[in-house]
Amino acid sequence: MTPEEADNAVRSIAKKLLTELRSKDNHHTLRQLLDKYANQAKPLCPSGHEVWLWLCVWVHLVAEGK
Predict the structure, then answer these.
(1) Helix, strand, or coil (residue 44)
(2) Is 3 buried (19+), middle (13-18) or exposed (0-12) by CB count in 10 A?
(3) What single-letter DSSP state applies at residue 46?
């Protein structure tokens, strides 16, 4: 997988998380959703990082439109 494909995959996961977080039916905290989506992001996460924390950075970047 190229770096560009990996970035797109992480952005896709972050967008799904944000969609669920912003849903009116959502009763979960951001951290609970980060834990939920961490399994999907784990293969993309660089070693030595906490997956949920690394994914949180991506979620914030996507939310800001970067």
Answers:
(1) helix
(2) exposed
(3) P
Instruction: Give the distance, in angstroms, between the CA of residue 59 and the centroid of all CA atoms in the same chain.
Output: 5
Do residues 55 and 10 touch, judged by C-beta distance below 8 A? yes
Report how far residue 23's alpha carbon sits from residue 8's, in angstroms, rounded to the nearest whole number. 22
Tokens 């009116």 sit on residue: 24
Q: What is the pLDDT of residues 23-65, one digit of tens each?
A: 999 999 999 999 999 999 999 999 999 999 999 999 999 999 9
Residue 31, both tokens:
């951290």
Q: What is the CA radius of gyration of the chain?
A: 12
Per the structure block, which two tokens stand in for 64?
């800001």
Fill in the amino acid letter for 16. K
The two structure tokens encoding residue 46: 């660089």
